[in-house]
Amino acid sequence: MLTCCLCACSKALMKLSEAEALRSSVKKERNAIDRFEEAIFFSLKGEVCSNVGCVKLAKEMSRQALRLLEKRFPRTRAGAFVKSLWEGLKRAPQATGRASFLPQEARRKKQAWLVQRSRCLALLEDLYSQEGTSGGQRFSRLAALMKANTDSKMHSYQAADSHIGQALN
Q1: How far apart, in whole angstroms, are the C-alpha atoms of residue 27 and residue 31?
Q2: 3-class secondary structure per residue, the chain
Q3: How far apart are CA 84 and CA 16, in angstroms?
């Protein structure tokens, strides 16, 4: 069973590499939709790399996806320390009322971006937690904190959708 899964993941990685070659040959505009599609591609490739055991490549793909989703994940311990402080400050109560002022279409697009960010951060958290080093644990905790902040923001958009939906009924 395990070899079958590993074989399927290897095939998926091969197909994703072929898709990447095709994708890079096509001239794309750098608009939000193209960036989102590219982020999904890198996120998926990161998940497949993780399943195959290519941890370093999985981390790089997840970081690339986050970069496209306008969320940076640091590469150094010092960067992780500073980012942890910044993310810790963001845990303070946020202005969730802003989400309700956005049009429904904009809220849904933002939610899709946040869901994808959350997936990438969850994968990074998992990959770094498996390292067993103090640096790995630091990066894992940072990814968990960033994911919690992303999820909190996502819930504020969902709450805005539900409040507006109830007001229309």
Answers
A1: 12
A2: CHHHHHHHHHHHHHHHHHHHHHHHHCCCCCCHHHHHHHHHHHHHHHHHHHHHCCHHHHHHHHHHHHHHCCCCCCCCHHHHHHHHHHHHHHCCCCCCHHHHHCCHHHHHHHHHHHHHHHHHHHHHHHHHHCCCCHHHHHHHHHHHHHHHHHHHHHHHHHHHHHHHHHHHC
A3: 33
- Residue 65 CB neighbours (<10 A): 30
Global pTM value: 0.82
The per-residue pLDDT for range 77-121, each reduced to its tens digit, is 999 999 999 998 876 555 455 666 778 788 888 899 999 999 999
Q: Under a CB-based contact definition with an 8 Å cutoff, are residues 66 and 120 in contact? A: yes
